[in-house]
Write a structure and sequence with these properties.
Rossmann fold, 5 strands, elongated, alpha/beta
């Protein structure tokens, strides 16, 4: 029964993603909400989600990644939001990389949530990092997402991404892009 449910979720995610138009790596100025001047200079590339030591269905990893792209784009905090592997990232000097590693996952039960408000919660905890190209960590936080009451188990991915985006919005970033001195000139 559980395998069929996860298979159904995977098919649902695949169908939704296949029928939606692809997200663009760059947004026009009209689409963006106003951003603070100190962070508007940065672009961000969202790396694929690392499951870490947690057993997590690939559909959940994919859903977290897609939700992160959407929610980080909505913040207006960055000039561009790029996907992992986007060739446009090579030309950007003002690029930060968002890395997400799953630390904990409790699958929960939609049925139990429907019957009682005490059990059945789906919970997800990740470590998220904003890094420069050279690997310097600019921001590191542990972020949680959960579905406690009504909603499918996949709803946890949206809630998590929304919390990551909120964390990025509330955190301060360096004012200018960090530059790396050529080797031997330190």
């Amino acid at each position: 029964m559980k395998a069929n449910k996860f298979f159904g979720i995977a098919i649902l995610v695949a169908v939704v993603c296949a029928t939606r138009p692809p997200l663009m790596s760059a947004q026009t100025q009209a689409e963006k909400p106003p951003a603070s001047s100190s962070s508007a200079q940065w672009s961000v590339q969202v790396d694929k989600v690392d499951a870490g030591d947690v057993t997590l269905a690939s559909s959940f990893q994919f859903a977290i990644y897609e939700s992160l792209i959407q929610e980080v784009s909505k913040t207006g905090r960055f000039k561009q939001v790029l996907r992992d592997g986007d060739t446009n990232a090579a030309d950007l000097s003002d690029l930060l990389i968002l890395k997400t590693t799953v630390q904990k996952y409790a699958p929960g039960s939609e049925t139990k949530r429907a019957v009682t408000t005490v059990s059945g919660a789906t919970k997800l905890t990740v470590r998220t990092q904003l890094c420069t190209r050279d690997g310097k960590v600019v921001l590191e936080r542990t972020v949680n997402g959960n579905v406690r009451f009504i909603g499918s188990n996949l709803r946890v991915t949206h809630n998590l991404a929304r919390n990551v985006a909120k964390t990025l919005t509330q955190s301060s970033l360096p004012r200018t892009p960090l530059t790396v001195a050529p080797a031997g000139q330190l």
